[in-house]
Amino acid sequence: MSSPTKAEKKYWDNLAESVGCIVCRNMGLTNNYVSIHHIDGRTKKGCHGVGSVLPLCYPHHQGKDGIHPYKARWVKNFGSEKDLAEQCSRILAEEKD
Description:
The chain is about 50% helix and about 10% strand. It is mainly alpha-helical. The protein has a single domain (about 5-95), classed as Herpes Virus-1, CATH 3.30.40.190. A two-stranded antiparallel sheet has the order 1-2. Helix 1 (about 5-20) crosses helix 5 (about 80-95). The N and C termini lie far apart (about 35 Å). The longest helix is centred in the C-terminal third of the chain and has 16 residues, at about 80-95. The chain has helices at about 5-20, 20-25, 60, 70-80, 80-95, and strands at about 35-40, 55. The model has no long low-confidence stretch (mean pLDDT about 95).
């Protein structure tokens, strides 16, 4: 497993602080108590960076409504991981403007 770089960790911090749980946000809620979900696992090159991670609260990450282990149901209910990652990137970009 590769370790995240300092820049990747900063990106994670920005996701947590500015976006919060992307699923909660899309439901009109604010929840900045998140962990980082790796879309394609934690071992591939670039797996920790932009477009490869999502900020998710416990219920939407590993809880009863979580992507682990209910990925198909989760995607049906909340959208594709890739689309949500792109949304997170847009939110951060808009914040910079």
